[in-house]
Specification:
Layout lengths: L2 H10 L1 H16 L6 H26 L7 H17 L5 H26 L3 H20 L13 H4 L1 E2 L2 E2 H19 L1 H11 L1 H6 L4 H27 L10 H11 L11 H20 L4 H33 L3 H8 L1
Antiparallel strand pairs: 1-2
Helix pairs in contact: 2-13, 3-8, 3-9, 3-11, 3-12, 3-13, 4-5, 4-6, 4-11, 5-6, 5-11, 8-9, 9-11, 12-13, 12-14
GO molecular function: transmembrane transporter activity
Pfam families: BPD_transp_2 (PF02653)
InterPro entries: ABC_transp_permease (IPR001851)
Length: about 325
């Protein structure tokens, strides 16, 4: 095999290689890591992050960023619990209404950022703060307990040996991969994130595409919120705290570029599983939660630095590939 082919393979499947190496290290540290039950646990833990991560991936591919997903997840858990316990609404209807509310939150975030022409990080951070406050106001700052047992199914149920959240994660990942790889709409997301001006000149309404990306992110954050609600078994105004950091770390490790226009669903999903593997393995090795925070932060910083380096390298290649004016004139002559 040629050296260039090996390098391309390593670059293409870096996240998978890291997962294998990380699994080997954790297995040596604690043999309990390499068991079927623990593997299912890792998949279950990664499913909620993965569903929210797929939504954030749409936003990042289109050239934005969404830091409000954690607050959306929190507000969904509170809304569903309040519907069941305090407002006399059936839990299924409450879930539908909560996901619709999350979708509207996603649309509002995109509308404010794109139409207002503000920095995506600042705009989504502002929405995150607003929604976090709303979640506390709705439940009075207290967790909502006493929810129906059957309403926990999407977070705790199983079909055969597979947890329901994992099945939802796989289905959503497959749909997202189809949309991004096989449809014109998917190409529009990539075009809007790669070169806004070129996309507009090609007839693509980049404003609508970016708002749609945020709306999809809100929808999937809502579904992730339903899964979180079932997992924790209550309405928690802090349920989504730090979720956005885990999501961003996962998708960037999975190859989704912070600069936009680049990313694959499979690798992003692998990044989500990798983050869950990391948390699970460090816990089994009795590493403190605070040390885990440092490690996750360092990994995120490293992934962003690598992404920035790769983006600059691509830009330099494009600049070097452009013919100089004198050469162009000579060729015309």
């Amino acid at each position: 095999m040629k050296k260039s082919s090996v390098m391309h393979f390593v670059k293409e499947y870096t996240v998978v290689i890291v997962m294998i190496l990380l699994g080997a290290v954790f297995t040596i540290g604690n043999p309990a890591f390499l068991t079927g039950n623990n593997f299912i646990t890792i998949l279950r833990q990664s499913s909620m992050t993965g569903v929210a991560g797929v939504g954030v991936m749409f936003v990042m591919i289109a050239g934005g960023i969404n830091l409000a997903v954690g607050s959306v997840i929190s507000i969904v858990t509170v809304l569903v619990a309040m519907c069941c316990v305090n407002w006399g609404i059936h839990w299924a209807i409450g879930m539908v209404l909560s996901v619709i509310a999350a979708t509207v939150c996603g649309w509002f975030t995109g509308f404010a950022i794109v139409k207002g022409k503000i920095a995506p990080m600042i705009g989504s951070l502002a929405v995150k703060t607003i929604l976090g406050g709303v979640a506390y106001i709705i439940c009075g700052g207290l967790p909502v307990y006493g929810i129906p047992q059957e309403s926990k199914y999407l977070g705790q149920g199983t079909i055969g040996f597979l947890p329901v959240p994992v099945i939802i994660f796989v289905i959503i990942g497959a749909i997202a991969a189809f949309v991004l790889n096989k449809t014109y709409l998917g190409r529009y997301f990539y075009a809007a994130g790669s070169n806004d001006e070129a996309a507009r000149l090609s007839g693509i309404n980049t404003t609508r595409i970016r708002i749609l990306a945020y709306t999809i992110s809100g929808l999937l954050a809502g579904i992730a919120g339903i899964m979180m609600y079932g997992r924790v078994g209550s309405g928690q105004p802090i349920a989504g705290n730090e979720v956005e950091m885990n999501v961003l770390t996962a998708v960037v490790i999975g190859g989704v570029s912070m600069a936009g226009g680049e990313g694959k669903v499979f690798k992003a999903c692998c990044g989500c599983v990798l983050i869950s593997m990391l948390t699970n393995g460090l816990t089994l090795m009795n590493i403190s939660e605070y040390t885990q925070m440092v490690i996750r932060g360092a990994i995120f910083l490293g992934a962003v630095l690598l992404d920035s380096y790769q983006h600059r390298a691509k830009q330099q290649k494009v600049v070097h590939a452009e013919p100089k004016s004198g050469q162009t004139e000579g060729a015309k002559a």
